[in-house]
Design goal:
With 671 residues, the chain is of the alpha+beta class. It contains 23 helices and eleven strands. The protein has three domains: 247 residues, Butyryl-CoA Dehydrogenase, subunit A, domain 3 (Up-down Bundle), CATH 1.20.140; 136 residues, Beta Barrel (Butyryl-CoA Dehydrogenase, subunit A, domain 2); 150 residues, Butyryl-CoA Dehydrogenase, subunit A, domain 3, CATH 1.20.140.10. Bound molecules: ligand FFI and flavin-adenine dinucleotide (FAD). Ligand FFI binds next to helix 4, helix 5, helix 6, helix 8 and helix 10.
């Protein structure tokens, strides 16, 4: 964080920091996943942000579309040199997924780098889908930025339904090449980040045909532009998809092939191969291993959701400590808006959710690594559970994060609507995460498949995998006894999930018994299935969050343990109050217990209040990363708003040319 001198800090923020009663650094270590991780992150930030090239003289949002893109490319080149020459030195390949890299990227790009998908998906797909020999060929070139790649899976006609993709890759044994072709308008690749103007290579997911047979979708590495001239190769048509709600510097593109040939070796052959004579050989033990990059990105998106929400919460809480408004008691000074319980209600859940998603995300990452280790030994048994877990957690975390970032914007009143607050841009960036890498509903329905199967296993007394083990207790179908202890609340959330899953399973059974096909019975139950999946995910987040807080604060100072537990309890109570209808249905909770719960919630808001600024300081964001007039460490909100306003191109002259051209003639009746 950029602390400046204490004299520069807004007096209200100064007082808030004196009120804070816990060790901020200890909380930072917990959020980062350990002291060593914090130190590494800070080192990366220091190295990367000492290079002033990230600074824009004119705010990014004041440039036109083309200027913004060119500027983003310029900064991407500076930044990729830093990654290549400095950051990879610090941590090796691990740097690519490190929080330090993620954070410093935000200091360079208020919107998104056109190189993001190169690092975010192109490189991970090479690592996940190539044979060691292919990796040795492609990876150094990609890491050295000799080639720049995109990931083109989605088409104009299909994003969700991958099996329905239309682009074909037909093997020609005579030349030992694949012929890529886009047979229809709807087969045009659409959306790939970095593809429109930047990438010279692209991972293309296409239907593989060999010896006259289709073997489903497979990934290929495809050179699309000449490395020297950057002109698209004959047979390749590529361009930008047009202006978007956000991501306007991400260079999302379209791509069409006309009988375009690539060598056989460009098929990514870790999970399946095509031999020289065209024989198709399946290597992988699990049908869906070609979907591996998506699972990897979904796992990382949970912490991405936490990260972005933490930024918004930092901005809104600091601003709420500085902003004074209204006069609830006559004659008294206007209070800080953070003193209003309604403001606390809007904001403290944002801090708690950022913690919940970050700690759940770290736990999910460890689970992912364990599954990966099993798969290296040839064991894919835990893949279905990982898919179910990562699907629902990606869906719920990105959806919660987007909704709460918007809530932070509301919490900042009119100033939150300024682009210089950074909240609108943050929202437009994060709301896309609910759609990309698997739409919210679609992913929850994937988890639902796993849950209904698990329920059937529970009913027949089979052993269940860890994340659904709670279903075994719920098979008794009795209402759970409500208790407002943490364990009691988690048990109740699980009972809600189990009750909803059971109702779905019963509904499907009832419909199929009366002659409805299984597919139709499933469709007719999907509204409930999505709700069941969401309830399961919420119960899982509550359990993982509380478990991690208990584990991680075991050796912390007492005050840190208290504040972390207050936040986690707030999260549980908040969701109990949000889902009272469900609790009334599946637990023994009654009116008086609901009233007690409401009181407990209000008490927690009051307890957290003195530590609110300390808690967002613990996210440890440097001002360069927050990019916010409202959220800077020093709280000089009004000064910064004025400084930014003066940078607007509309303030360059006191009279605009349009006055002479239109307004004056209009007034004189000459227009
Ligand atoms: C250098 C400087 C640089 C500076 C920058 C520096 C920046 C630094 C870095 C910055 C980082 C920033 C953040 C990250 C950035 C990322 C951005 C990403 C952007 C967005 C990318 C995208 O957006 S990219 C496209 C993603 N597009 C989807 O996401 C499609 C969803 N659609 C499906 O994913 C399938 O279509 C769908 C539904 C499963 C059905 O697939 P399907 O039809 O084949 O399968 P069925 O439904 O029939 O299911 C049959 C059985 O398969 C099982 N199963 C299915 N999937 C499975 C799986 N994966 N693993 C195991 N099992 C699986 C299922 O559970 C069933 O099991 P069972 O039979 O036992 O029940
Ligand atoms: C900013 C951004 C960046 C992207 N980057 C990339 C990229 O780099 N590479 C890439 O390949 N793709 C990329 N995408 C595409 C993205 O992965 C898809 O948009 C996403 O997977 C959703 O697919 P879709 O657009 O086909 O939506 P659709 O599937 O058409 O969804 C429309 C609606 O239909 C519903 N629906 C669809 N199927 C079902 C079902 N089976 N049951 C119930 N409801 C259903 C959905 O819930 C949704 O409400 C990007 C998208 C965005 C917005």
């Amino acid at each position: 964080m950029t602390k400046g001198t204490q004299a520069d800090v807004n007096p209200d923020l100064k007082k808030e920091r004196l009120k804070c009663n816990f060790n901020i650094q200890e909380v930072t270590f917990i959020i980062d996943g350990g002291k060593d991780k914090t130190l590494q992150r800070k080192k990366i930030e220091d190295v990367a942000l000492n290079i002033a090239a990230s600074i824009d003289e004119v705010p990014e949002e004041c440039l036109n579309l083309k200027e913004r893109y060119d500027n983003a490319v310029r900064k991407s080149c500076v930044y990729s040199n830093i990654v290549k020459n400095e950051l990879l030195e610090i941590t090796g390949l691990e740097a690519l997924g490190s929080p330090g890299l993620r954070r410093t990227a935000d200091a360079f790009f208020k919107d998104v780098s056109p190189f993001m998908l190169h690092l975010g998906m192109f490189v991970p797909t090479i690592i996940g889908q190539c044979t060691p020999e292919q990796q040795a060929h492609w990876l150094p070139k990609a890491l050295e930025m000799q080639i720049i790649g995109a990931y083109a899976q989605t088409e104009l006609g299909h994003g969700t339904f991958i099996r329905g993709l239309e682009t074909t890759a037909t093997y020609d044994p005579a030349t030992e090449e694949f012929v890529l072709h886009s047979p229809t308008l709807t087969s045009t690749k659409w959306w790939a980040g970095g593809l429109g103007n930047t990438a010279n290579h692209c991972i293309v997911v296409a239907q593989l045909y060999t010896k006259g047979q289709c073997h489903g979708t497979h990934p290929f590495i495809v050179p699309i532009r000449d490395l020297d001239t950057h002109e698209p190769f004959p047979g390749v048509k590529v361009g930008d998809v047009g202006i978007r709600m956000g991501f306007n510097t991400a260079d999302n593109g379209f791509l069409r092939f006309n009988q375009y040939r690539i060598p056989r070796e460009n098929m990514m052959m870790k999970n399946a191969k095509v031999m020289k004579d065209g024989t198709y050989v399946k290597v992988a033990r699990h049908e869906k291993l070609t979907y591996g990059t998506m699972v990897f990105v979904r796992v990382t998106l949970v912490m991405e959701a936490a990260f972005n929400l933490a930024k918004a919460a930092t901005i809104a809480v600091r601003y709420s400590a500085v902003r004074r408004q209204s006069q609830p008691k006559p004659g008294e000074p206007e209070p800080q808006i953070l003193d209003y319980p309604t403001q606390q209600h809007k904001l403290f859940i944002c801090i708690a959710t950022a913690h919940a998603l970050q700690l759940t995300g770290l736990w999910l990452w460890r689970t992912f690594e364990a599954v990966l280790a099993d798969m290296r030994k040839g064991d894919t048994d835990s893949l279905p559970e990982l898919h179910a877990l990562s699907s629902c957690l990606k869906a719920v975390s990105t959806s919660d994060s987007a909704a709460l970032i918007e809530q932070c914007r509301f919490a900042c009143g009119g100033h939150g609507y300024m682009l210089s607050s950074n909240l609108p841009l943050l929202y437009s960036f994060v709301t896309a995460t609910r759609t990309y890498e698997g739409d919210y509903t679609v992913l929850l329905l994937q988890t639902a498949r796993f849950l209904v199967k698990a329920w059937e296993q529970a009913e027949s007394g089979k052993v269940l995998t860890p994340t659904v083990a709670y279903l075994a207790c719920a098979a008794a179908k009795e209402k759970v006894v409500w208790s407002d202890s943490v364990d009691g609340m988690i048990r109740s959330f699980q009972a809600v999930a189990a009750g909803k899953i059971a109702a779905c399973a019963e509904n499907i059974k009832r419909l199929t018994k009366t002659g409805t096909s299984l597919e139709d019975a499933w469709q007719l139950s999907t509204v409930r299935l999505v709700a069941a999946s969401e309830a399961h995910c919420r119960a899982m987040i509550c359990q993982a969050y509380w478990h991690e807080v208990t584990r991680l604060t075991a050796s912390c100072s007492a005050s840190v343990k208290i504040v972390m537990e207050q936040l986690a309890t707030l999260y549980l109570v908040y969701w109990a109050l949000e889902t009272t209808g469900d609790l009334l249905r599946y637990s023994t909770i009654c009116e008086s217990e609901l009233n007690k719960l409401q009181l407990k919630y209000e008490e927690l808001l009051a307890l957290i209040r003195p530590n609110a600024v300390g808690l967002v300081d613990a996210f440890d964001f440097r001002d360069e990363i927050l990019h916010s007039t409202l959220g800077a460490y020093d709280g000089r909100v009004y000064e910064r708003l004025m400084e930014e306003a003066l940078k607007s191109p509309l303030n360059e002259t006191s009279v605009q040319s349009s006055f002479h051209k239109y307004i004056r003639p209009l007034a004189k009746g000459k227009l």
